[in-house]
Specification:
The complex is a heterodimer of chains A (about 180) and B (about 100). With about 180 residues, chain A is an all-alpha fold. Chain A contains seven helices and no strands. Chain B has about 100 residues and is mostly helical. Chain B contains three helices and no strands. The longest helix of chain B has about 30 residues. Chain B is elongated, with a radius of gyration of 17 Å. The chains are: A mainly alpha (about 180), B mainly alpha (about 100). Chains A and B meet through α1, α2, α3, α6 and α7 of A and α1, α2 and α3 of B.
């Protein structure tokens, strides 16, 4: 089953890269590992018959957003976290908070296990109830965005404009006029 | 054919990793990266359910999530730069006062 093999390959890559992202002390490596994780997710999108999302994932996430992060990491010349000291002063390290946190994590695990045990259709294949041509057409997707979802699309353009102006205003030095 | 539940479990794992990163890490940039991991986990859920239902809306909302993520990253990183100028630190605990 090549499909199963590629799924587990991409899934393992995504999980391991994401774990290393939060396990790294050096933000530079974190950003590069996150790009690997996004690449793996893009492979999964291709398996899910979503070519547009797969390509957008590479171009927008790995290409644009992560480059922005890389620029900021290099611009700030951020040092590695002062690990020992920051960990010692972490608010979650205080005994009371740590106990509550452990309790909540335990409750969450119990609840997740109960929810997973209640699922009956574990093995229904993801594409069993529909054929691939219903979802893999980029032309159909564009038509839907510009007809049914026009309002959301226009709202998004305003959001991007606001974000752009906001980023310029926030990152400006106070002295410049 | 991969069962839908595999995709959902993978997505839950990625979301949990992202949430753990937000809580456990003390570097503003890593916290923003963890938020991106969580957004991606949700995107995977949307696309998997869209494929399951044979419906394009799952992919379309993923497209909107991506644009919101881009806007969030731009504003978030601008804030990080502005904060770093004031305190020369990326530790969120350096910014506990709202005004200085």
């Amino acid at each position: 089953m090549p499909e199963t093999v590629t799924f587990f390959l991409f899934a393992a890559l995504a999980v391991i890269a994401s774990l290393l992202v939060i396990g790294q002390r050096n933000p530079m490596y974190s950003v590069l590992l996150l790009i690997a994780s996004f690449g793996a997710l893009s492979g999964l999108y291709i398996q899910l018959e979503a070519p547009f999302v797969a390509v957008a994932q590479i171009i927008i996430y790995a290409g644009a957003i992560m480059v922005l992060f890389l620029f900021v990491v290099m611009l700030l010349n951020a040092p590695k976290e002062d690990a020992a000291e920051w960990d010692r002063t972490h608010p979650l390290r205080q005994p009371g908070v740590a106990r509550w946190g452990t309790l909540l994590v335990g409750l969450l695990i119990v609840q997740l296990a109960m929810a997973l045990l209640a699922v009956r259709e574990y093995h229904t294949p993801v594409g069993a109830q529909s054929d691939a041509t219903a979802v893999n057409s980029v032309a159909e997707m564009g038509r839907s965005i510009f007809t049914r979802h026009t309002f959301a699309f226009e709202a998004t353009s305003i959001l991007i404009l606001v974000a752009m102006v906001g980023a310029v205003v926030l990152a400006r030095r106070e002295g410049d006029q | 054919m991969i069962p839908l539940s595999y995709y959902l479990i993978l997505s839950a794992m990625l979301f949990a990793i992202g949430a753990a990163g937000v809580f456990l890490r003390r570097n503003l940039i890593t916290i923003l990266l963890s938020v991106e991991i969580m957004l991606n986990a949700v995107n995977l859920t949307f696309v998997a359910f869209g494929r399951f239902a044979g419906d394009l809306d799952g992919q379309i909302i993923t497209f909107f999530v991506m644009t919101v993520a881009a806007a969030e990253a731009a504003v978030g990183l601008a804030l990080v730069i502005a904060l770093f100028r004031h305190r020369e630190s990326l530790n969120p605990d350096a910014f506990t006062t709202l005004k200085w």
